[in-house]
UniProtKB/TrEMBL annotation:
Alphabetized Pfam families for the sequence: Complex1_51K (PF01512), NADH_4Fe-4S (PF10589)
Protein family (similarity comment): Belongs to the complex I 51 kDa subunit family.
InterPro entries xref list: NADH-UbQ_OxRdtase_51kDa_CS (IPR001949), Nuo51_FMN-bd (IPR011538), Nuo51_FMN-bd_sf (IPR037225), Nuop51_4Fe4S-bd (IPR019575), Nuop51_4Fe4S-bd_sf (IPR037207)
Top-level taxon: Bacteria
Entry keyword Nucleus: no
Keywords on record: 4Fe-4S, Iron, Iron-sulfur, Metal-binding
Residues of the NADH-ubiquinone oxidoreductase 51kDa subunit iron-sulphur binding domain: 414-459
PANTHER family: NADH-QUINONE OXIDOREDUCTASE SUBUNIT F (PTHR43578)
Record protein name field: Formate dehydrogenase
Cofactors: FMN
Length: 502
């Protein structure tokens, strides 16, 4: 008997290790394979039993459910996991192997298409590799949505004795866990993507900057790097090609601002995590002053499937200039939270009401914050907005890392606006005045509004404009998005408090 149980952090937090102990005690002869999570967090721990080549799911499992799981009589039987609606409706490209394979088995990885893309890339020139990424339409999945191929082209064309690939794994936004799930569930795809990037732009060294709050991801990825070196996937002769690429893991101390690429580079160099002025761009003067590609985990982990199946295959998915798939992370007050990978173009309402099943509280949805703590609060009236970078920008929002936090109708939106300013004040690196001082003044101004000071409303608007236009990075520049969206779409929450004060 072969049984699959996730070793993903979310599954562990929900009791996966106790279930594994119970399985080992009840069926010592069974082969227990630890995997990543399928992304259906409301069903974790999800136990899968393989029967005649089909994996049957049971969840959310508890130790007391083990006897019924083993004999197939459990009331928590879900049927074939691949036939579940959540799984069937996805377009899993980046996450195709997550939850399916043993994350640390290179043979499993290759049996499911792994290294096919790298082998193809090794037969190409650097410029051909860059052109393939351009043709795919891949854009940065970490925030701004900048075209990945353009960034690679800049580094490729730069003349320097050393170039670097830096993976930004400092996943600090609320409602985001795709990077962690990928690193814990399929680390070799990130390693393969970084190797392709390095060979494409002429970089022989890479770093993954990983937040210290992710101990399981650090452990899994570190072990995967060791295996990759031992098997010739990394080193001075990648897969016998004569080309070199190696990489290391570096832990950050947990500063939110280090998710911004220049702050990350300072921290990686052993300096204080403070935003750098641009220009120069990191693509020209990045890590240690050398040309550097800085990409998010999902961006780099998507590169292998582009080279495995071809740029056109990937570009055929999506909407407008948003090509390929988006890894939606659904969280907050929601009935069915988890990770769902689909082509760009799905509407916000379909994500929240259909996939997410509405609120966990059963009350009406009031707002959804998309893009982390700096994202706009989208009201129900905006639920027809399709998931696409330009489409969301037109609607006054941003996709960012595609994390969605759902709120019901009991939420005080003035309080959420205040939280955004307070968050910025706490997390600011202090480099620029609009962010460092503006966020503190923002908290004070919102407190005045809460006390019924109507004159503070235009002041808050002016302050947000100053922060948006004058901040050095997105921390101060994007904080106005949640503040102004709360004020614009939920004016009653601000007026009600004013009336109460009167």
């Amino acid at each position: 008997m072969k049984v699959y149980v996730p070793m993903d952090s979310a599954a562990k937090a929900l009791g996966a290790e106790d279930v594994v102990d119970a399985l080992r005690a009840a069926a010592p002869e069974a082969e227990i394979v630890r995997t990543g999570s399928r992304g259906m967090i409301w069903l974790e721990p999800l136990v899968e039993v393989e029967l005649d080549g089909v994996r049957l799911g049971f969840g959310p499992a508890e130790p007391s459910d083990v006897p019924g799981i083993l004999d197939g009589s459990s009331a928590k039987a879900l049927g074939p996991v691949e036939d579940l609606d959540w799984m069937k409706r996805q377009t899993r490209l980046t996450f195709a192997r997550v939850g399916v394979i043993d994350p640390l088995s290179l043979s499993d990885y290759q049996a499911h298409g792994g290294l096919t893309g790298l082998r193809r890339a090794l037969a190409m020139t650097g410029q051909e590799i860059v052109d393939e990424v351009k043709a795919s339409g891949l854009r940065g999945r970490g925030g701004a949505g900048f075209p990945t191929g353009i960034k690679w082209q800049t580094v490729h064309d730069a003349d320097a004795p050393q170039k670097y690939i830096v993976c930004n794994a400092d996943e600090g936004d609320s409602a985001t866990f795709a990077d962690r799930m990928l690193m814990e569930g399929d680390p070799f795809t990130l390693i393969e993507g970084m190797a392709i990037a390095g060979i494409g732009v002429g970089a022989t060294k890479g770093y993954v900057y990983l937040r210290s709050e992710y101990p399981d991801a650090i452990a899994v990825l570190s072990r995967a790097v060791e295996i990759a070196r031992a098997e010739g996937l990394l080193g001075g002769d990648v897969l016998g090609s004569g080309r070199a690429f190696n990489m290391e893991i570096r832990k950050g101390a947990g500063a939110y601002v280090c998710g911004e690429e220049t702050s990350l580079l300072n921290s990686l160099e052993g300096k204080r995590g403070v935003v750098r002025s641009k220009p120069p761009l990191p693509a020209l003067e990045g890590f240690l002053g050398r040309p550097t590609v800085v990409n998010n985990v999902i961006s780099l982990a998507t590169v292998p499937v582009i080279f495995e199946k071809g740029a056109q295959f990937y570009a055929d998915f999506g909407l407008g200039r948003s090509r390929g798939t988006v890894t939606l992370q659904i969280a907050g007050n929601v009935a069915q939270g988890g990770l769902f990978e689909t082509a760009f173009g799905i509407s916000l309402g379909e994500v929240v009401n259909d996939l997410g099943g509405g609120t966990a509280s059963g009350r009406p949805v009031k707002a959804v914050q998309v893009g982390g703590p700096l994202g706009a609060y989208m009201p129900v009236s905006k639920f027809d907005t399709p998931l696409g970078y330009e489409e969301f920008d037109t609607a006054g929002g941003l996709i960012g890392h595609a994390g969605l936090t759902v709120f019901d109708d009991t939420t005080d939106m003035l309080g959420m606006a205040r939280f955004a300013m307070e968050f910025c004040a706490v997390e600011s690196c202090g480099k620029c005045t609009p962010c460092r001082i503006g966020a503190v003044r923002g908290v004070e101004t919102i407190d005045r509004i809460a006390q019924g000071d109507a004159d503070a409303l235009p002041l808050l608007t002016d302050l947000c404009e100053t922060m948006k236009d004058g901040s050095l990075c997105a921390l101060g520049g994007f904080t106005p998005f949640p503040v102004m969206s709360a004020l614009t779409h939920f004016p009653d929450d601000f007026a009600r408090l004013k009336e109460a004060a009167e």
